[in-house]
């Protein structure tokens, strides 16, 4: 059981007065330790001539699969600032413009994913060790079966449709947990 970061006492799960949810509360000092969803910010970096820039993950989860550059928003960062930082760290891309594009609630894992459409200004080597390689993909070349996350798939699916229409509205969705596959299924796992 976690300890209170103020006084070190072991926390208890109770419904605090005036609240409607069970929270971790310190019985000694009374501090309520709220656990809130984590915010993931990233970009869909595009170059009009070369296509969309994707990163092949060098770390778990989903090591070896393709993703958009994204990661946890840090304290003190605005969302766009965090998206720019993650894109520079994972893809080595500096960006010109950012436009809010997808907002994806994933309540069963306590996350919200936010992606911006972004124009690439310049490219360098990725700054971190989270990426095996970066590569541009034209619209018809996206490696759909090798994408790491459902939020990335959703964002890329919207992008391919919107690009054909020439309009890029804001998209919002709530993703539910994946349903277990039937026992006799050849997939032996989970399906979207």
Structural commentary:
This protein has 192 residues and is α+β, with helices and mostly antiparallel strands. The protein has two domains: 1-35, Single Sheet (Ubiquitin Ligase Nedd4, Chain: W); 38-174, Nucleoside Triphosphate Pyrophosphohydrolase, CATH 3.90.79.10. 15% of the residues lie in helices and 38% in strands. It contains two helices and 13 strands. The strands form three sheets. Strands 4, 5, 6, 7, 8, 9, 10 and 11 form an eight-stranded mixed sheet that branches. The protein is elongated, with a radius of gyration of 20 Å. The two termini are 34 Å apart. The model is unreliable at 184-192 (pLDDT under 50).
Can you tell me the CATH topology of the largest domain? Nucleoside Triphosphate Pyrophosphohydrolase
Q: What is the residue-averaged pLDDT? A: 92
Low-confidence runs (pLDDT<50, min 5 residues)? 184-192
Structural domain count: 2
Report the total helices: 2
Task: List key phrases describing it.
15% helix; eight-stranded mixed sheet; alpha+beta; 38% strand; three-stranded antiparallel sheet; Nucleoside Triphosphate Pyrophosphohydrolase; 13 strands; 192 residues; Ubiquitin Ligase Nedd4, Chain: W
In short:
The protein is of the alpha+beta class and 192 residues long. The protein has 2 helices and 13 strands.
Topology:
Layout: E1 12-14, E2 23-25, E3 32-33, E4 38-47, E5 51-57, E6 66-67, E7 70-72, H1 79-91, E8 93-106, E9 111-123, E10 131-137, H2 150-165, E11 171-174, E12 179-180, E13 190-191
Parallel strand pairs: 4-9, 8-11
Antiparallel strand pairs: 1-2, 2-3, 4-5, 4-7, 5-6, 5-10, 8-9, 12-13
């Amino acid at each position: 059981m976690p300890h209170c970061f103020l006084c070190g006492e072991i926390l208890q799960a109770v419904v605090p007065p005036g609240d409607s949810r069970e929270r971790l509360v310190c019985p000694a000092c009374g501090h309520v330790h709220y656990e809130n969803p984590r915010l993931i910010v990233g970009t869909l970096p595009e170059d009009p001539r070369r296509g969309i820039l994707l990163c092949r993950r060098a770390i778990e989860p989903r090591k070896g699969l393709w993703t958009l550059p994204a990661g946890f928003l840090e304290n003190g960062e605005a969302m766009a600032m965090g998206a720019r930082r993650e894109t520079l760290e994972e893809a080595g891309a500096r960006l010109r413009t950012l436009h809010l594009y997808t907002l994806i609630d994933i309540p069963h894992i306590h996350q919200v994913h936010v992606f911006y459409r972004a124009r690439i200004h310049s490219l360098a080597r990725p700054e971190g060790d989270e990426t095996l390689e970066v590569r541009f993909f034209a619209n018809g070349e996206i490696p759909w079966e090798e994408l790491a996350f459902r939020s990335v798939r959703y964002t890329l699916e919207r992008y391919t449709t919107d690009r054909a229409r020439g309009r890029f509205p804001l998209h919002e969705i709530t993703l539910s947990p994946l349903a277990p596959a039937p026992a006799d299924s050849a997939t032996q796992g989970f399906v979207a």
